[in-house]
Amino acid sequence: MAEKVQFYTNPMSRGQIVRWMLEEIGEPYDAHIVGYEGDDGMKSSSYLAINPMGKVPAIVHDGKIVTECAAICAYLAESFPEAGLAPRADERADYYRWTFFAAGPVEAAVTNRSAGFAGKPGSERMFGYGTYERTMDVLESAVRGRDYICGARFTAADVYVGAQIDWGLQFGSMPDRPRFKAYAERLRQRAAYRHAKEIDNALIAEMQAVG
Question: Are the C-beta atoms of 157 and 136 separated by less than 8 Å?
């Protein structure tokens, strides 16, 4: 019998993405809250043994460690096929294309812009995303004329790509475009999304209450 997933997270982190994915899977898991500081925090020797990068999220399942949100979502979809979140044969191209596009060009373009970093004029070829504006245009094409990333069916790609768009709209790091808003609103209606947010928001409130 497979072991329960051990989930290492902090509610004020990208761990919210994996929490959502775990709720979509619908299988029991153990959550371990890891602080940003302290003897048992992300830079502690015990946690660095799990993720040498010293960041969350991470999971341990059947003795194997998986880090990086996109990889965790894909791993969980394949490890729990009964949830129906892995791609079917005709969905694989869009599933992998847009998951890795979000993990690569989108992540880099958004974080660089949020940090105030901009390349010199004419240096676009040095960056995998070219320009922020082009990256947003291409991302929008992933949700144009379809309900979900792979078409009419929700998959793990929507957890990862959808979380990027959802957060981008909330924090103003992505443009407030109608297609992004409509896509994010569909995702926000999902029971697993709402339950995951309830858990993490409650944890955030507890952490803020104790300073």
Answer: no
